[in-house]
């Protein structure tokens, strides 16, 4: 990765659309001495995102961006990232697809967490699809973001067993618990820590 930790922590923005439980784990991780990142900005496309509350709790600047027009939305985001000197973006349940131009302008510096063992089950409804296919296990993946959806270089994955009694909801909960550990581990890995 092109970033270097130096003495200061890497200024990071987390993009969310919903509950923000991964955001919360990333904030907790960022506060550890061993963490190479600090969370300096929360971006959302959804003014009702529950995760926005963590901005208030942890005094992190948050920005709600209206995505009615993608171009304008991304320009606004880039402006915010510049203002805050953001060096790394962590997508954490961000349900908008970023344009190629946006991804290029932050190339190699955008991470995403996805609730399946990529390349299996890109996109939505991953747990339902894994159960319907009678898979024995699923899991989660942290990967670099490139111009193709859920297709960038994989950093780390964690496997989670699927049981007969599982519903998408019960499986999703077990996977989410693993996501919370995996994101931090993946960040340590890309910085060789
Ligand atoms: C997580 O399971 C994350 O992997 C998934 O949304 C959930 C967000 O939960 N992301 C995607 O599906 C991206 N395509 P959270 O808001 O509690 O972190």
Task: Describe the model.
The chain has 193 residues and is an alpha/beta fold. It is built from six helices and seven strands. It has helices at 21-30, 53-58, 70-83, 100-105, 126-132, 168-190; strands at 10-16, 37-44, 61-64, 88-91, 110-114, 137-144, 154-161. Strand 1, helix 1 and strand 2 (37-44) form a beta-alpha-beta unit. The longest helix is centred in the C-terminal third of the chain and has 23 residues, at 168-190. Glycinamide ribonucleotide binds at residues 16, 18-22, 51, 92-93, 113-115, 176, 179.
In short:
The protein contains 6 helices and 7 strands.
* SS element count, helices: 6
Domain tally: 2
| Rg measurement, Å | 16 Å
What is the count of β-strands?
Answer: 7
Oligomer: single chain
The span between the termini is: 12 Å
* Spatial ordering of strands, largest sheet: 3-2-1-4-5-6-7
Give the biggest sheet.
7 strands, mixed
Judged by helices, strands and strand pairing, the structural class is: alpha/beta
Which molecules are bound in this entry? Answer: glycinamide ribonucleotide
CATH superfamily of the largest domain: Formyl transferase, N-terminal domain
